Amino acid sequence: MRSFWQDLRYAIRTLLKAPGFAALAVVTLALGMAVTTMMFSTINGIILRPLPVSHPEQLAVLALQDASGPAMQNFSYPGYQDLRTQTPSFSDILAYRVTLAALSADNRGDHCIVSRVSSNYFSMLGLQPATGRLILPTEGQTPGADPIVVLSYAYWQKRFAGDSGVVGKQVTLNGHPATIIGVAPKGFHGTYALVDMDLYVSLSTNVRLAGDTSAEELWTSRSSRSLTLMGRLKPGVDLKQAQTSLNVVAQRIAEQHSDTDKGITVRVFPENLARPEPDPDNTIPTVSAIFMALGALVLLVACFNVTNVLLVRATTRQREMAIRAALGAGRVRLIRQYLTESLLLAFLGGGLGMVLAAWATRFLSSISLGTDFPIHLDFMPDARVYLFALGAVFLTGIIVGVFPALRVARRDVNSVLHEGGRGSSDGPRRQYARSALVIAQVAGSLVLLIVAGLFLRSLGKAQKVSLGFEPAGILNFSVDIQQVGLNEVQGRAFFRDLETRLRTLPGVVSVSQAFSIPLGLMSSNDLVVIEGRPVPAGQQPPSLQYNMVSPTYFETMSIPLRSGRVFTAADAEKSIPVAIIDEAMAKQFWPNQDPLGKHFSVKNTTTPAIEVVGVVQDVKLKSITEEPQSSFYLPFEQSYMPLRTFHLRTSVPPETLEMQVQSSIRELAPNLAVSDLQTMSQSLQGVNGFLFYRLGAQFSATMGILGLFLAVVGVYSVASYAAAQRTHEIGIRMALGAAPRDILSMVLRQGFVIVAIGVLAGLAAAFAGTRLLAGLFYGVSPADPATFAAVAILLLCVALLASWIPARRATRVSPLVALRFE
User: Fold this and answer.
1) In angstroms, rounded to a whole number, what is the distance separating the alpha carbons of residues 276 and 545?
2) Are 375 and 333 in contact (CB under 8 A)?
């Protein structure tokens, strides 16, 4: 320890004597550490951090897959009961579904995200209440019984200011009475990742929430699949064993209920790899690993940069180390001294990097997702992130210091001392080593810049894609009138009055209503049966997305009508049920036919056959990159829904009408909460819109710029040292008549060769690596020649500029001074 403290004090004195070098090295390492730690912290927040429940490593998510396609589906309540009682690999299985509800208390309503949960939800997770109690396993067994509510901790603090007296309070949930029985523990945000639940209610609660099926269908229909299942593995049982037992159970269920479950299989996923939903392609883990590799590449380039500078310093410190060796210091002690200095730099850089990473993750945690719903993004560092950072610091210190340390250890003491004050120069092998590090820096930086360029081009392509509607000039907002206790008759009158008021606002061109918005977080799906096409035994009807809209919806959204008509006031509650379909649905079910006048029915309702009266252009519904999806529209007058989104097309900037819109709503219902009041352009920046491409472009561009900066610093440092080492040679050449342009050309040539080799190596690495990212780009090839060429030219120009500065300086050296250099 005494030797360690001596080495540490000496390392501090050495760095203080060269503050410029120390600052450059620390900042360089800090940038690399910040990017790597930020990426790991983000991945940790998404897939690595376990749920705050008892033994989270035992949790697994179940998903159903049938013969109709690869998509994962949810479960019916009877199917859930079968799996819970027949699967021996799990000690218990819970069920839940996420929906929306209006909670009213103290003459104030809130729009809430709700988990409808099975009676064993909290007991299986091993949770204890913050106050009051949670839903008991003995409750929620009978349909219509136990109208009880558990508040989330965050909602309890926000809505009731943490008042423990809220337990036992009577509230209304979508107009139905319910009782608050307790508060979930702090830190528990629910089991649906990225969403911070507001409320938990029992599945038995006789409350029709947004998008819910009827109580009878929920409890008895095997074709009504809306539940997500999560199981707890028994001790000693792994996922492979659980999958084997599930295969047997699924086959048994398919044989017993061949009319609904023929061809089904049940898949099991680790809980942390099924966020927010099970994905057999492991998209999120794959994307996370890719960006983590890019972050590590930034750190590696930073390490190469600092290593190169340390190699230069090692050459200038050879005499110092030789004297220490002559005085009795062994090679191990000299290596340890260098590693102490490099570890000190790594710790200083790591500390600064953690500060930068904490700032970046705080920014990411607060990023807008295009909705007012309580989305939970927690990327802040925890113990796992700090341990990762500590390990990265040690690894960085070793990578940075080992090569200079070994160089010092290999030098012959006598030869160094005999050189005296004349200095020393490196041989070809050591020059090649430094050049190889610069080549690696340039190649790594080129890969980062090419990935950034491809993401930026993808973002540009995505922003130009046709969405099927015109988002510019539209203002959106949502209201749920059940918050203020209005029934259907009162609700219809409220919506008519509000629409009339909104039409009179200055600058409003048209107003319409809908249940959901394209590319939003909320949507409705149902099973569709086409008239004259019976569903084969054992198969499920196709599930299509649909929307409920007012007659002016297609005009306001600028969705072109291809044939037929739009909805009118004549499409009333007691008239013939009608629908408007999109072109994809027309092609899927009535190819080469006129779909007008055709009929279909929705399986989960008792509505008579619905007649197709119009066909409209396809609209992007779930993703901006999706292929056209079959969908249809129903008129609000025939399909009442108390939760609605209003669209206002304006001739003025839509955001300027926000205050007037809120005032119009308050005049009709002072206590009604308004959510997602924003422009359509803002809404499209959310999860299903441009968010992924925007963040991908920002992440990769940041890493690319850092890589470019590090490459420039590396090229400049090596070119400067090379020019300084050749000062004597330059003096001789100039004394013999060499012109400044000849010296400039000579120095630039050396830098150009190194940079050119690095660019070629980087192009080869990028050509191979970007193919692994092909699924992340949109509208651009992973080997896009324009991106490759532009980035290569940019890096060549910038790197050559870094070489030109020391080359220009070399041409100004006086021959007399240069000849006295040694």
Assistant:
1) 20
2) no
Sequence-distant (≥ 6) Cβ neighbours of residue 227 within 8 angstroms: 74, 75, 76, 77, 80, 95, 96, 97
> Strands 561-564 and 524-530, how do they pair?
unpaired
Measure the CA angle with vertex 623, ends 790 and 620; round to 5°.
110
For residue 276, cis peptide bond before it (omega within 30 degrees of 0): yes
**What are the CA-CA distances from residue 370 to residues 159, 277, 477 (Å)?**
22, 20, 12
User: Which of 543, 539, 602, 541 lies closest to 259, judged by CA?
Assistant: 539
Tell me the pairing of strands 599-602 and 610-616: antiparallel
State the Cα–Cα distance between residues 135 and 121, nearest whole angstrom.
8
- Burial (CB < 10 A; 0-12, 13-18, 19+), residue 446, is buried
The C-alpha R_g of the chain, in whole angstroms, comes to 33
Tokens of 479: 């209201």
Tokens 């990023």 locate to 367
Tell me the residue ranges of DSSP E strands in 424-507: 474-480
Full-model pTM = 0.80
Closest CA to 193 of 261, 292, 96: 96
Q: Which helix (DSSP H) or strand (DSSP E) does residue 187 occupy?
A: none
Strands 599-602 and 524-530: antiparallel
By three-state DSSP, how is residue 113 classified?
strand
Q: Which amino acid is at 733?
A: R
Residue 521 tokens, joined: 């977080």
pLDDT > 60? residue 411:
no
Range of weakest confidence among 110-114, 213-217, 678-682: 213-217
Q: What is the DSSP string of 352-369?
A: HHHHHHHHHHHHHHT---
Q: Average pLDDT, stretch 445-449?
A: 89
600 close to 631: Cβ distance less than 8 angstroms: no
Average pLDDT value for the chain: 84
Question: Is the Cβ–Cβ distance between 717 and 802 less than 8 Å?
Answer: no
How many residues belong to the chain? 822
- Tokens (6 digits) for 204: 């038995």
The arithmetic mean of pLDDT across residues 690-706, rounded, is 84
Tens of pLDDT, residues 456-484: 898 888 888 889 999 999 999 999 888 78
Distance (Å, whole) CA 67 – CA 277? 20
Q: Hunting for tokens 């104030």 — which residue is that?
A: 108
Find out whether 766 and 792 touch, Cβ atoms under 8 Å. Answer: no
The encoded tokens of residue 87 equal 């699967």
Provide the residue type at 87 as one letter: T
Residues 6+ apart with CB under 8 A from 93: 62, 80, 83, 84, 87, 124, 229, 230, 231, 232
